Every structure is written in C-alpha cells, then in structure tokens.
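2024-03-11 09:14:02 DEBUG pipeline.ingest accepted 1 chain
2024-03-11 09:14:02 DEBUG pipeline.ingest length=140
2024-03-11 09:14:03 DEBUG pipeline.predict start
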Amino acid sequence: MNRTHSSAETQSKLKRQGVLRGWFALRHSRDGIAATWREESAFRQEVCVAAILLPVAMLMPLSAVERVLLAASVLLVLLVELINSALEAVVDRISLERHELSGRAKDCGSAAVTVAILICALTWATIAGPLMWHWLVSHA
C-alpha cells in the first residue's frame, strides 16, 4: 500500500524531532499541569502543601539522600494526582453514564493517590519526625 504524506504532515514530523520535540513536550506538560490546577481542587491543595514541604526539606539538617527522599515523596503525590486526573478525564470522556468499570477505574485512581500520600507521610515521619520531636522537646 503506497501512502503519500502531505507537505504539512512531513514538516510537522520534522519540526518535532530533536530539541523541538522536547520543547513541544514541555508545552504539553505545562498545559496538563494548568488544566489539572484549574479543574482539580485536590491538586491545588497538594501543590500548596508541596510549596511548604519542599523548602522545609531543603532547609532541614539532613543528608542529601534524606532530602531527596523527602522531596521525592512529596513530588510522588503530585505525580499520582496528575495520573489520577488524566484517568478520570478519560473515563468521563468515554461516558458520563454510571458503569461498574468506570467506577472501579476512578476508585483505583483515588486509591493510588491515597497510597502516595501514605508513602509521603511515612517518609516524612521516619526522616523528619525524629528531628521535629527533638526540636519540640528542646524548645518546650
């Protein structure tokens, strides 16, 4: 089967190679973050918590590995929330009608966010908890 491509298609494919491909990917990422910020209150709340926790993680007297673990656990929550939001959008795009599988998909996405939050809380409790406890006891 012989397929011919229009000049616009060929140019479009050429434009999105190399560095320009990365640029377009960043634009799509920005658009996805903006849409999630606009549509999902949970994401806005998690970003606000991240805006507090990330600087705190960098200022605590910890090793570089511990700082990375604290920051990664916070970013994991945002990552899973973005994926959950994408999953919900796809399910809603397919149909707004209630269906067992749609409900299960959304419940699983929500459960994934909960697990990410538990990982974050456990990481912070394990690494930062003793430091915070020591600080509270010494300043009481």
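2024-03-11 09:14:41 DEBUG pipeline.report The radius of gyration is 21 Å.
2024-03-11 09:14:41 DEBUG pipeline.predict end
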